[in-house]
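Sequence and fold:
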Amino acid sequence: MAAADHKELLKKVRRIEIKTRHAVNDIFAGRYHSVFKGRGMEFDEVREYFPGDDIRAIDWNVTARTGVPHIKKFVEEREMTVMLLVDISSSNDFGSTPQLKRDLAAEVAATLAFSATRNNDRIGLILFSDQVEKYIPPRKGTPHVLRIIREVLDHRPLSKKTDARPVLDFLNHTTTRKTITFLVSDFIFPPGYERAMKVTARRHDLIAVSIVDRHERAWPKAGLIEWQDPESGKRVLVNTSSAAVRRSLLLAQEQRSDILRRTLRRAGIDRIELFTGEPYDKAFMKFFRQRSRRR
C-alpha cells in the first residue's frame, strides 16, 4: 500500500472510531449488556464438601473415588464471544450516497466491536465473499477492534462473488462454543443458503444485519443506462424510463427480500435492516427493545 493510501486509511479508521465510540457511549450504553448477558453458570472446579454447602451440588463420581464428599463449584458465565461475519464481495462497493455499503458495514462492525469490548467480551472477525477471505480469532482490547475496522475497510477480496454457505460452515467447524454472531451483508446470495442459516442458528445466536441502498429497491427514472453486475461483471443496458422495466426490477428485489424474510423467520433469526447514508441507531434500539421483551 502506498504511503498516501495508508495515511488516508488511518484517517478513515480514526473517523469511524470517533463516530462509533460516541454511539456506544451515548446510545448503546447498558442496552448491549442487558440483552447479551452471561448465559448462565459454568463449571469452575470440584472441591471438598463443607457443612452448609448445597448437597445437590455433590459430585458423586469424585466422592466415590476419593471416599470424601466433594461438590461441583459453578461461577456465573460472564465472558462471551462475539463473531462478526462481514460480506466484502463486490456488490458491497455500491452506494448511491457518499457512504458505500462497505463503509456502513465497517461502522456497524466497529459499533458492535466496541460494545463487546466494553462488556468485556471477546470479538472475532470473518471476512467472506463466496469463500472465507480472512479469519481473525476472537480477542479483547481497543487495538484489536481497530484492526477489525482496518480489515473491513481495506481487505481486497480474492473473489467478487458472494455465498453465505462457506462462511457459515467455517464458523460451525471453527467455533465449538455458542457465540453471538452478527452476519453483516447485503444478502444478495445465490439460492441454497437457507439451510446453512438454519443450521447455524441452532448452534449460535445468529443475527442478520442487512445492509441496503435505497436505489437498489427504487430505480430512478434516468433514461437508458448501462448497468454492470459487480460480481459477475456482466453489462446490460437498462431503460429506466420504462415503467414496466422499473416494476420488473422492483419485483425481483421484493422476491429476494421475501425469501430472506421467510428464511429468517423460519430459523428464528432476528434481522436489523440498515440503509446507507442514514442513521442506524433507531434500528439497533428497536432490536434491543425486542430482545429485552423476549428475555
The two ends are 47 Å apart (CA to CA). The chain has nine helices and ten strands. The domain at 78-294 is CATH 3.40.50.410 (Rossmann fold). The CA atoms of residues 122 and 139 lie 5 Å apart.
